[in-house]
Write a structure and sequence with these properties.
Keywords: Signal. The chain has helices spanning 5-20, 86-97, 103-108, and strands spanning 25-26, 28-34, 40-48, 55-63, 68-69, 75-78, 112-116, 128-131, 144-152, 166-174, 180-186, 197-209, 213-225, 230-240. It is mostly beta strands.
């Protein structure tokens, strides 16, 4: 039996609607690397904004000693043109970043991705990551372990209609000291640059070595309400060892 063309068209439209419903905007993560001395860590997030369809690319350059942004960063590019491409947005962000730390220097000192859990990973613990910091076997380094706790901050200005709002606390567990914990970061309030975050998960641990292990960056995915579904963006917490 032949199915009428109009019914086929309707079915295809319904399938397309289901496939795109609540898609949200999940920014892709590109770990760029460290400066030659490990003093700066850089990463990029990029994607197509849900709702508008505009491509964007953001680059973050962080002082690993103070865990603070370098002057004139982050670099944020959004091309408010539906005909613009993601490659164009990324190129503009890269060109602006050359004045901060050159791409060649970052690529030459990318470090090691010691652990990585994609946002789509269902079996991993989103609040804990323990890694061997370098691919040396048998290991010569103490394990690096991080644990994340969400902190309710529902009184955040401008976020009252965005559901449960959370900050976070990040701890480093010292294996050699019998599980002693070190507070790496704790939100007292939500910075405006983070918007209205609903939740967090540890996405990656990047390490850097010179004579020995000397710096790390913990990449954290931030979940927010988006126009078409949950949006995910990236932040990093850095430190020296």
């Amino acid at each position: 039996m032949r199915i009428p063309v109009l019914i086929c068209t309707w079915l295809l439209a319904q399938l397309a609607t289901v496939a795109t419903a609540d898609a949200g905007d999940v920014a892709e993560l590109e770990i760029l690397g460290f400066s030659q001395d490990g003093g700066v860590f850089a990463f990029e997030e990029f994607g197509v904004q849900d709702g508008s369809g505009f491509p964007y690319a953001n680059r973050y350059y962080i002082d690993t000693s103070g865990d603070s942004f370098l002057k004139d960063t982050p670099i944020r590019v959004r091309l408010d043109d539906e005909a613009a491409t993601l490659d164009q947005a990324r190129l503009q962000a890269r060109q602006k970043g050359e004045a901060i730390v050159g791409q060649a220097e970052l690529a030459a000192n990318r470090g090691i991705t010691a652990g990585f859990n994609a946002i789509t990973e269902l079996s991993a613990d989103p609040y804990r990551m323990a890694v061997n910091p370098r691919p040396i076997f048998s290991p010569v380094d103490e394990p690096l372990e991080f644990r994340l706790d969400e902190i309710p901050l529902n009184d955040t200005e401008g976020c009252q209609s965005q559901g449960e709002i959370n900050g976070f606390r990040l701890l480093r567990i010292e294996a050699k000291d019998g599980g002693k914990t070190e507070l790496v970061h704790e939100d007292k309030s939500i910075p405006k640059s983070r918007g209205c975050p609903n939740g967090y998960r540890i996405g990656a641990v990047q390490t850097f070595s010179m004579q020995g292990l000397s710096a790390y960056a913990v990449l954290i995915a931030v979940r927010q309400y988006g126009f078409e579904g949950p949006d995910f963006r990236w932040i990093a917490v850095t430190g020296r060892l």
